[in-house]
Structure formats: C-alpha cells, structure tokens
Amino acid sequence: MSDTTSHKAFTLYGIKNCDTIKKARRWLEDQEIPYQFHDYRVDGLSSELLQAFIEQVGWEPLLNTRGTTWRKLSDEQKAAINNTEAAQALMLEQPAIIKRPLLISKTAASAIEKCLIGFKAEQYQQFFSHD
C-alpha cells in the first residue's frame, strides 16, 4: 500500500450476504487495505448518497438488470425505468437492485474521488495501484 492510499478513505457498499461482496471483502482484507463496509439493508441508503453515486457513474451502470430483484419486476415496471429519477426511486425502494459491490475512494475532504462497480481481483489491483 502506498503512502497516498493511507490518506484516503475506502468504503465498500453492498449487502453483507452477497457472494461477490464476500469475495471483495476477503480481497481487501488479504491486501491489508483498511475500508468501511456499508450494508444497504443495515445502514440504509439516503437519496443524497445515491445521487452522489449516480453523479459519479450514471444510473445505468448502477442498476443490476441481471439479478433476482430486477427479474421479479413486471415488464411495465422495467419499462418505466428509463431515466435518472425513475431509476433512483427504484434503487432507494429496493437497494438490492444496485450492482455490488460498489467501492468508493474518498479524499481527505470526503469528496468521492473514484468508484469501481463489481469485483474482479485485477480491477481492484489496478484501482489501488493508481493511488
């Protein structure tokens, strides 16, 4: 871990029992990278936080259209998710529909610096090697 990494705060967002979250957490712990875990079901999700995510990556990449939560929606509900407001309302109502994990790097001033959606060891390696 580089010196600059130690001046940043890392937060992993998701749901505790998700297998991909478990892999990401294990990777971070194996690399001895300190991070906070934010469980949407336990810690909640504010509209302000979700808006910050959307501003960073857009609503389309955040929306998990391959998961169970999406598949349970009716065709009418799916068709209605065609803009930021509709997607944000759905994600606030059903946080399990947000792709996970979402890894956030914040600067000392608590501004979101960069985000990474999903987990692949190579992508995490690259995410941290650029610090």
TrEMBL record:
Belongs to the ArsC family. It comes from Xenorhabdus khoisanae. CDD domains: ArsC_Yffb. This is ArsC family transcriptional regulator. SUPFAM superfamilies: Thioredoxin-like.
